[in-house]
Design goal:
Shape: globular
Structural class: alpha+beta
Order of helices and strands: EEHHHEEEEEHE
Largest sheet: 6 strands, antiparallel
Distance between the termini: 13 Å
Helix content: 25-40%
Length: 177
């Protein structure tokens, strides 16, 4: 996948090319920033800035709901930035489909590492698929999460397992410059 060229709204890496791989990389950056924040408020800000009109909202986005569930299951408040560390690593991905050059449905399989103070880190696999649309702007354009209902939930498979390859996932690599 391509590397980011800049940091955009709410600290989300951006500047990805107008390609399916660029859409996948942008979606991974959106999810990673929202989840690693350990703050429902920040995750809500992320989707506010990174969804097209008619797309997921701060109340409906699966990323906000997933983070709220994670924090709640750890017995933490919706803004637990100092009470938990959440590491988010996009490990595998695939392009579920495209329509023209401005609409892509990428899927990313992450390893989420959660560490509470004084506890051993815990890891889980979590996957996400989103409708990504190219949105022209003053900088030339960027990928955002598109309008409509979110795609069916992707299988959360341990990256590198036979099941992950059977589902179509491939290892994600960012070329080193």
């Amino acid at each position: 996948i391509p590397p980011p060229m800049q940091v955009g709204d709410v600290g989300v890496a951006t500047g990805y090319p107008h390609t399916p791989q660029g859409a996948l990389a942008q979606m991974a950056a959106i999810d990673s920033t929202a989840l690693s924040s350990a703050s429902v408020k920040i995750a809500q800000d992320v989707i506010t800035h990174w969804a097209a009109p008619g797309g997921p909202t701060p109340e409906s986005w699966s990323g906000v709901k997933g983070l709220a569930t994670l924090l709640g299951s750890a017995g933490l408040s919706a803004d637990a930035q100092n009470g938990i560390t959440i590491g988010v690593e996009p490990k595998m991905g695939f392009i579920k489909g495209t329509v023209g050059s401005d609409f892509v449905v990428p899927c990313v399989d992450f390893i989420i590492t959660v560490t509470l103070p004084g506890a051993q880190p815990q890891q889980v696999a979590a996957a996400d698929c989103q409708r990504m649309v190219w949105q022209e702007d003053s900088t030339g354009g960027r990928w955002v999460i598109g309008p409509g209902d979110e795609p069916a939930e992707a299988p959360s498979l341990w990256p590198g397992s036979q099941a992950s390859f059977d589902a179509g996932y491939q290892w994600l690599e960012v070329p080193q410059s």
